[in-house]
Amino acid sequence: MRNRVPMLFIATALLALVLISPVAAQTNLVANVTRSGGHLWGGESATFSASLDEGHWNVIVSSDAFWGLQVLIIVANDAGFTSIIAESGTGTGDFPEVGFNLDTAQTVYIRVLENSVYSDSSGFYDIGVYDDATAFGVRIGSFFWNNIIVLSFAVPLIFVCCCIALARRGRGPAAQPMWRRRSFAMDAPSFVIPDEHRGRSRTDGSEMKTVRVPNVCPNCKGALTQDNLDWTGPLEAECGYCGAVVRATFESI
């Protein structure tokens, strides 16, 4: 009888340890609060519990891309994970987020498993269970953190591209001197070209007789074109509207 008592006590203690071990291994998550510092080695898993109100919830696992950790998330109604509410994916790979609905307030159980093809990924991670509004901010923060190296190169590159584009734009018509924008070029009769330039030829053999004329008459402000100018002498013409003298400039192009 004396031997049975210790044996009965040991058996009871072992049974109690088995029964409570799933609960004892769980870490409690608080809604909309991120838990940091988790770590998984290849093939490992971690279990959490969270008391949530009814509504739509999102479990998000964030890890630095440097570590290459790949995870799968399972959400269940019970600690034994026999009644599954949602899974973040199927097969191997990285599935770091899952959403699910609760019709009533209850405690859910969350398991995060290392999920690479060869069970060889590992790394540190943050985890949380969030409502939709909070989850949006977490996603944005995770994106910038995971892509900080890419962004550190992309932002200067975009700046350089903008500078090049502005420099090229500066060579266009808008960057021309004001006097060029207020005038137009045309070929004039030979007698209009000053003597020192008359008879000179371009590389293609044609005579150089291009002049630049104001867009409007300096007297009446009428719009000038090749058709309403009467050339009277070297670099001088009359406005077809008012007869005022319009002076041109020679362009050696």
- Low-pLDDT runs of 5+ residues are 16-24
The SS-based structural class is alpha+beta
Helix content: 10-25%
The number of helical runs is 4
How would you describe the shape? rod-shaped
Total domain units: 2
End-to-end distance: 121 Å
Spell out the helices and strands N to C.
HEEEEEEEEEHHHEEEEEE
CATH topology of the largest domain: Jelly Rolls
Which CATH first-tier class of the largest domain would you pick?
Mainly Beta
Can you name the CATH architecture of the largest domain? Sandwich
- List how many beta strands DSSP finds: 15
Q: Compute the CA-based radius of gyration.
A: 41 Å
Strand content: 25-35%
Write the layout of secondary structure elements.
Blueprint: H1 4-24, E1 27-29, E2 35-40, E3 45-52, E4 55-62, E5 71-76, E6 84-87, E7 97-102, E8 106-114, E9 123-130, H2 132-146, H3 148-169, H4 178-181, E10 183-187, E11 210-214, E12 229-233, E13 236-239, E14 245-247, E15 249-251
Parallel strand pairs: 1-3
Antiparallel strand pairs: 2-9, 3-8, 4-7, 4-9, 5-6, 5-8, 10-11, 11-15, 12-13, 13-14
